[in-house]
Amino acid sequence: MTAGNKRSWKPKWGRAMLLMGLSAVSWTDLGRGLSALAQGLQATHSINYSVRLSANSEGRAPLDVTMTATLPSGYRAAWDFGDGQQGAGAAVQHTYYHAGNYTISTQILDGQGRLVGTATGQLDVQSSGAERAEMTLLLGSGELRVSAAGSVVYAPGTPRFQVDGREVGPKAVALAAGPHRVTVRVPGSSGMLERSLTFTMAPLGGSVPFDAEVLRLTNRARQRGWNCATQREGGPALPPLARNAQLDLAATAQSAGMALAGYFDHQSALDGSTPSRRIHATGMKPRSNAENIAAGQTSPEEVVDSWLHSPGHCHNIMGEFSLIGLSYVTRPGTKYKTYWTQVFAQL
């Protein structure tokens, strides 16, 4: 599920804008009856077990599910995923490629392989509609990474990418200023799926000190307990956010995309990607995430102050996150000239 509150705001000191987006998805005991997996494992010898399932999506296929069992030393878990596949271990991951209702079961075995506990539950996986190829562009200054994040494919397979007719991998590709064409081809359950798009690269600026100062000011607000309701310090202090390289990629893709394509929105006008999709394109699959964007502000102090005095942005900064990605991008001659992005995540 995705929730978003979009706000535009023009401060008195000139043309600038803010927009916040929130996508907080964290499932425990997915589906109907999965609470049974966290119950009933009281078993023998007064040993307690706990089982947790989590997924980072809307419950739609293809659905990646992580199954975790907290067990005493020497015990192990055996899983039946309900789709003809099995797994073993205290923590396993499984992908459900098709919609349906699945019965998941787990068996807890002691050190001698004896069965000491079992539980079952139901998992509903919904369809994502027709198969389709999508791509997510992780843009940077003079470079590009391409991902198939956002594609709907009901079969395992490896996507292939082309930039200007040349095969490329997941690593960054250097791009000169000018037009470029990107193509993704993904093997689906009934054949190859393909999508292409074009965009124009241009020189982009930035500032490492500005990014560092945004981080410092953000963590200062958390440390001093900024209260989003009263818009003053003195509330409960929060731990600092740690900067994360993957989230930096997602943040840079958003700031660069806005600067290059002239849009101001959480959904990219270049590739249609959302904040969650850009994060997934980096390889990270957090339990929850959020994004703040702004345009037109000329300093870290100005943009962080703007975010802190806007309730939605403030709640992201003061949210239950542990990681952050940052990006300040400049492109003279565009409407706003400066573009700012914060991406938050909790693993």
Explain how this protein is built.
The chain has 347 residues and is an alpha+beta fold. The protein is built from five helices and 20 strands. It has helices at residues 208-223, 245-261, 275-281, 300-308, 311-317, and strands at 17-24, 50-55, 63-70, 76-80, 86-88, 91-96, 100-109, 115-125, 136-140, 143-147, 160-163, 166-168, 173-174, 178-188, 191-201, 205-206, 242-243, 288-295, 323-330, 338-346. The radius of gyration is 23 Å and the shape is flat.
Please state roughly what percent of the residues sit in beta strands, choosing from under 5%, 5-15%, 15-25%, 25-35%, 35-45% or over 45%: 35-45%
Coarse shape: flat
Mean pLDDT: 85
Main beta sheet strand tally, sense and closure: 6 strands, mixed
List the total number of helices: 5
Q: Indicate the percent of residues in helices.
A: 10-25%
Low-confidence stretches: 1-15, 22-48
Q: From the helix content, strand content and strand pairing, which structural class follows?
A: alpha+beta
Report Rg.
Answer: 23 Å
Order of helices and strands: EEEEEEEEEEEEEEEEHEHHEHHEE
- Could you tell me how far the N terminus lies from the C terminus, measured between alpha carbons in angstroms? 17 Å
User: Quick one: how many beta strands?
Assistant: 20
Protein name: CAP domain-containing protein
Domain PKD: 79-130
Pfam families: CAP, PKD_4
Organism: Deinococcus oregonensis
